[in-house]
Amino acid sequence: MSTTDTDDGTVLLNERTGRYWQLNNTGAHVLRRLLGGQEPAGIAADLADRYGIAPEQAERDVAAVIERLRGSELVIS
């Protein structure tokens, strides 16, 4: 996987398939934290604090990003 940051988030290239994916700033934040070894619960807590949203909503949002990344085979764990 190759990544490039943009003004609106991050563009990802799945080097195995040649497909591109774009993440908005929040999705890019989640990806960077995952790649840095942070657990999803910690990422969700950070998002809840940062954006003033309910922790449950942040947990659902992080889970949704992870599922999309898994579905596109950009992350496997």
Automatic annotation (TrEMBL):
The lineage of its organism: Bacteria, Bacillati, Actinomycetota, Actinomycetes, Kitasatosporales. It comes from Streptomyces olindensis. This is Lasso peptide biosynthesis PqqD family chaperone. Pfam families: PqqD. It comes from the Bacteria.
